[in-house]
Amino acid sequence: MNDAFALTAKQRDTNRLLGGPASHILLYGGSRSGKTFLVIRAICWRSLYGPGSRHAILRFRLAHVKASIVNDTFPKVMKLCFPDEPWDLDKQEWRAIFRRSRSEIWFGGLDDKERTEKILGMEFASIFLNECSQIPYSSRNLAVTRLAQRVQMKWENAPPADMRLKMYYDENPPDKAHWTYRLFRQGLDPETKDRLRDPGNYSCLQVNPRDNLANLPDKYIATLEGLSARNRRRFLEGEFRDARPDALFSDEMFDKWRALDLADFPDMQRIVVAIDPSGSGDIDNSENDAIGIVVAGLGTDGIGYCLEDLTVLAGPKTWANIAITAYDRWGADLIVAETNYGGAMVQQVIRTARPNVPFKAVTASRGKVVRAEPISALAEQGKVRMAGNFVELEEELCGFTTAGYTGSQSPNRADAFVWAFAELFPAIVKPRSDVNVPKRQAMPVAQRYSWMG
């Protein structure tokens, strides 16, 4: 082994913690701080010095494990830290096999029941819950029962010693109601709220992007500094947020079900472009609200996907062209728009841009929160998902609470999002409208997204 990778000062502290006496270790902090890299490096080290050992790296969704770990972080760790160690990837079982030690690292997603049962039918010397802000505590408790493999470490010129069993966790910190905060920061059992019987067995460390400057692009920190205060707190400062039990949407809700790869998408039964207009004119509209424009689809799996956020601060001619272009690009079935502001003007603007486009006017007969509540319930169940990262849209949605909207600006993106899914799930949300649009035959996913290349 030739581990020539140079650790920063904070990463050396992290490495000592990972190899220390605690069995349960959480690394939490901002984005791209090196948390996942360091844990995988520690697991690889244990695999090489513990012949025949088994280790598991688990996320909530198998597709995310493949994309972020198998195809990215794991091979990067091997290349930088263990360049002389031969290994093979078994894509049928999704496991890495070290040729010399014959140790194995299994990759799994807790959303794949059959695969989860297979993996958790074995015993492991290490288990890593990656992005555990998305993982239910019940799933964690199931995984920890498989931390039971007895392995002897073999050192050069030293007698064999038993390998300590290790459960690793990492995350961008969620809010303080999450089980990781209670378990690691408060030292409480998340279910009973009793003090832990063995608090010394649980350790945590905050690791942030500024601790990893040597491995980041020059302007990455500046990018994070440009985020909203809420997102800076999570992705730059790596802090747990105060819990809001009355919030309708949360970061964890979006992260848990997020679809980032076209392979995650089914064929679409319907696609709609939803508009939440404002009073912006074509000239001098800087003081007006943005026009919310969101594209969403209903998959053949019965799940709704937010496909694109095209919200813009512009006048009618501009936003109408943006909506029509999106309608064409996605092969959509319908444009739906809220008409409380401007009434017939909204439909006239759309008809001027494209005379025969299918259009549906909806009227806001209830408050924003009341309209958003059923969409929130769908999102919590994973029946409404983000097909990508929509930072500004997600921030607006997180401003919805049962007590009202708490954001600093009008939630035009979020309103368009709600209108889109109200149209796609009419049995759950029934907005008033002036037309009924029949469903069309599902279009193959490759055809729907051919414009994406």
Characterization of this structure:
With 453 residues, the chain is of the alpha/beta class. It has 2 domains: 9-225, 3-Layer(aba) Sandwich (Rossmann fold), CATH 3.40.50.300; 251-452, Nucleotidyltransferase, domain 5 (2-Layer Sandwich), CATH 3.30.420.240. 33% of the residues lie in helices and 19% in strands. The chain has 15 helices and 19 strands. It has helices spanning 9-18, 35-49, 62-81, 113-119, 137-144, 179-185, 220-225, 229-235, 251-257, 316-330, 344-353, 368-380, 391-398, 412-424, 445-448, and strands spanning 24-28, 54-59, 87-90, 95-98, 104-109, 126-129, 152-153, 161-162, 166-171, 202-206, 268-276, 292-299, 304-309, 334-338, 359-363, 384-386, 400-401, 404-405, 432-433. It has an 8-stranded mixed beta sheet with strand order 3-4-5-2-6-9-1-10, sandwiched between helices. It has a 7-stranded mixed beta sheet with strand order 16-13-12-11-14-15-19. Strands 7-8 form a two-stranded antiparallel sheet. The radius of gyration is 25 Å and the shape is elongated.
Explain briefly what this protein structure is:
With 453 residues, the chain is α/β, with parallel strands linked by helices.
Present the secondary structure layout.
Layout: H1 9-18, E1 24-28, H2 35-49, E2 54-59, H3 62-81, E3 87-90, E4 95-98, E5 104-109, H4 113-119, E6 126-129, H5 137-144, E7 152-153, E8 161-162, E9 166-171, H6 179-185, E10 202-206, H7 220-225, H8 229-235, H9 251-257, E11 268-276, E12 292-299, E13 304-309, H10 316-330, E14 334-338, H11 344-353, E15 359-363, H12 368-380, E16 384-386, H13 391-398, E17 400-401, E18 404-405, H14 412-424, E19 432-433, H15 445-448
Parallel strand pairs: 1-9, 1-10, 2-5, 2-6, 6-9, 11-14, 13-16, 14-15
Antiparallel strand pairs: 3-4, 4-5, 7-8, 11-12, 12-13, 15-19, 17-18
Helix pairs in contact: 2-3, 10-11, 12-14, 13-14
